[in-house]
Structures
1.
Amino acid sequence: MIRYPRRTLLRAGAAFAGAAALGFPAIVSAQAEKIRIGHLTPLTGFLGVIGSYAQLGAKLAADEVNASGGILGKQIDLLSEDSINPATAATKAQRMLEQDGAVLLLGEISSASALTIMQVAERNKKVFFSTGARSDALRGKSCNKYSFHCDIPNTVMVNAVGTALSQQGMVKGKKFFTLTADYIFGHDLLKAAKIFFGAHDANLIGDELIATDVTDFSPYLLKVRQAKPDVVCCNLAGNQVTNLVKQYAEFGLPYPLVGFNLNTGDAWAAGAGNLSGTWPTVWYHTLQSPTSQAFVAAFTKTHGKPPENHAWIDYITLKLLAEAINTTKSTDSGELIAYFEKQAQFDIGKARKAYFRTWDHQLVQEAYPFTVKPKDQMKDQWDMLVLGDAVPAANDPLETIYPTREQNPCEMKA
Amino acid sequence: MQFEFLLEQVVNGLVLGGYYLLIALGLSLIFSVGGIVNLAHGAFYALGAYICVELTSRLGFSPSVVISPLVVALLGILFERFILRRFYTADPILSLLVTFGLAMVAEQAIRMIWGAAPVSTEIPQSFRGSIIVGDFLFSRYRLLILGVVAAILLGVWLLLHKTSFGRVVRAGIQQPDMVAALGIRLQPYMTAIVMLGVGLAALGGAFFAPITTVHPAMGADIMTIAFVVVVIGGLGSFWGVVIAALLVGVVRGIAIHFEPAAGEASIYILMFLVLLVRPRGLLGERIEKFE
């Protein structure tokens, strides 16, 4: 053991005490110059990989806003943490609002965790911008005044892919077999899929609910083969999509595999030779718009790889929040709600501008179906997807792909 | 037809069990010889997968799946020499803590080297697709894994039971003091067994890289199932681990056939039932250090 002379220890102690007495007030006042924003996203578990992209996206937005003068003349202090699971997400959200002095919250990918954060936000009367959660229920029967939803909901993903599949003659009269993630998001996606199948004369001949910790799909693939469907449809999330896609290619079943949910991070992880079929996406880094391309360039410069769609959505959300705060000159949740409910339009890097729908707080925007590029045409490992035309078509109002007021049971309490 | 489908799940479960065996056998071997529950075993599995992906892009799949476990086995020498060796006679809680810490360090190291996003790799074209025998469907790639596992199992059994190396190791497991009294140094044998154990874990990782997500936390994912297998089989028992791995694969397949939602829970229920009847696992021996 190293022994320090007593005098040195005393001196060090005195110096520390002095620094504490003099230094801490300075630190406290320095913090008061910043506006703290709480950011939660899963960094571990089956959504951890795409969550880590979300974190990078939010950080880039905060850095850019700070570099251009911050919000209300103050710097953003982005408090970004791993939400892990619904219980932890709620606890951390509570702590960020009550103890850390966060003025608002954003983030999340897991629909189950987003639901618990929404409840915390409502109790604390602070706004929460759910960036990556897709369950219809969150903006439907569980909606509340303090929560806004930035990603496309399940119904839109089903409509985007379903429309593309219909055009290929793969829906009407066909037998579908679905593999569904066994939590709120999966159940919700299956419900949207069933409505679509019902409306387009398709038959659902089998469905398997799959626990989120499953990594080996071989027993399920055997069941798919027994059912002999026309199309196999993946309603899974995160890593599970990658595992299924890889093992589907391994077994080489003859039925086409499509999906109603996919993030580009999962597609990249699956590898070029494994993925095929038609899938939905909310954004892809090859989208040609000045805002998107500027973001892609900044992200690629910092991280040496292009951004994933969750990096984009967390980036764009923090950017539009900063814009809203600067316009309203307030971080007060009541004022922000009033501003967004006026359906202010935002450039989110797509052909058409987006806005939050007043009555369910859904960010209404375009979506895209995509197919997979042949391997020999890829520029690099990230250049995997061929985007289809944006849905809805340019002449149709954006809301045509979203659930209508009759379909979406959202009633916000005043 | 129902019966044939069920049988298909049983056969598929045996193949899957063979893969679990690859991970669990190494864990069990290191435990039998050193009395150490190696919580870093999953980290070597992940390293095997990552090194294999890295090499595949340069050398192709077949050489990589051989070289990657060998590289990790060499790391195993350092692991045994500088870390495990200090804990053979220490309180088991210390080795649990140190290997757990090492697992976390390894996961972060992987994150630093390869990034948090998964890396992708594919099965070579020649091993893709399935073979249909009668009414049964087999993945060609998994049949390859099964063949390799069977060969390794035979090799490890012969090594332990038919060679002088194996005789010393087995004697060392039961009577380390007596072996020492005969003037035999056990250290090199320990090193060799640790090399073999972590090499097997890495081989499992390398083989599974093309069909699962290769991400930094993959080691932690596989450890759960490896532990379930080792606990059901009985710590330190060669045949116990073999039987348990196959049993876990089959039980999971049958559960998914009848009640898909209970697929993952079924193996924990199996573990619970086995421990209820036989607290030491199916073929486990009494271990003084832990009882």
2.
Amino acid sequence: MRTPRAFAAPFWLTFAFLYIPIVVVVIMSFNASSSLFVWRGFSLEWYAEVFRDGALMQGLGNTLIVASGSTAIATVLGTLLAVGISRYTRSGLIRAFAIAPALLPDLLLAIGLLSLFGLVQLTLGLHSVLIAHAVFSMAFVTAIVLARLSHVDPSLEEASRDLGAGPVRTLLRVTIPQLAPGIVAGALLAFTLSLDEFVIAFFTAAPNTPTLPMVIYSMVRFGVTPEVNALATMLLGVSLLAIIATQRLTRITESL
Amino acid sequence: MPAVSTRAPGGAVGSRPPRRWAPVALLGPGSLYLALFFLVPLGLIVGYAFLTRGRFGGVVPEFTLDNFARLVEPVYVQVITTSLGTAAITTLLALALGFPTAYVISRLPRRWRTTALILVLLPFWTNFLIRTYAWIILLNDAGWINGALVAVGIVDEPIRMLYTQPAVVVGLLYIYLPLMILPLYSAIERIDPSLEEAATNLGASRWRVFRTVTIPLALPGMLIGCVFVFVPSMANFVIPELIGGGKSLLLGNLIRDQFLKARDWPFGAALALVLTAILVLLLVLQARAAARAEGGGDRAHT
């Protein structure tokens, strides 16, 4: 059956709805005026402003530290977990447990971790955000690597073992190379999610170690500034690159 | 993993011995991490909900059910029902926009499908504070929508849009719509178009085909999409604050405030359990309905 004609209007409405706000932000990022609503000619002034803004740059630095650290933890632990789950358990419970942090509202994880850090009297800082981000990032890495594993033939691993390779050598030489696209896609996703994550950082960071989303939050909260448009446009570019890379590496959209 | 490699030569002798430690080496680190930083935190929330608030915040280990008793106070009942209502309206709107969109995408030529899906995902991968900020610009009294309405002459004066409850719904819808479209797409894409053709050939009207063939087969995806939109809509506290102007207090705001402002962790934990209970209830309903739909789907195939 052809697509019902009545679906055309909502289809275009959805794309208009999704893109008009973004287009407005991108256009206004090149606006010479400091007013958000009046166009006064083309300018790159707000882009320069972003790089001059100390708070934004500090937030960016913190975010990059947290994202790299949590991605490293999440990728290593998530990959091992996924291989372990697919090769050594049949329990659906462990599988569900490993992926659950991705489905739980971030607010619940955030207050839970705040409670834990309070209980053990851990001073909040970048390390606490890093630990927290790795929890949900790991769930995404595990899910993606698991999806990839379902296409990997276990008989290659058996052959490797029968030929005398130990399990570690089999893991490093046979299993991981086959999983590489999934692992890289998982790491990219983990990194991007960590760059964006606000709620968990909001609860687990110290006020003097804000991440970029926390800085954006306070900027937006205390009134709109055209600088945010320039920052948004740059972040949009980064997201576009990341999503294209991920799409190339894995059929992530198909496995959902 | 030095500990692992020192024992590796043992593995070369036969394939049996390594099997004993290999699962532990693979599953151990990740499970330990999740146990420490996922299970324990969730357990703490459950535990704190039954404890007493400390004089300077934090908790005192004295058992109480007061936190749950407070939940039925009218002010909190109202917040919970407002949250449920807001999330429900957002979910219905997401379904109304998302279903046709997912359907059209799933019937596009293959190479266009991927592009369309990336276009749906791209806003989702843009920082959500920035997406929220975009709506603040659009909905502002001096903003683009009001500007357009006045210019076209539909209204004489700007309408107050920002800091209203409908604006909160628009914001939530904008943030979570892709979470509806993706599972819907993957469910609809799997429907064999020949089933719809067969129904048409047998004389069913378009509407009847849609109602009796397409919807039942897409139901599992619809249900997942609804849960994906409903749950975070209830927990979100940023949109109600930035777009709602803090006037509409939703469950997420209330939980945040108990933890960070009122410093009443036990009551915050009790509220978090309400949120979790709603989440679990939805997941159970979704699993049941999906199981029933799968059964119906199988019969349709035979």
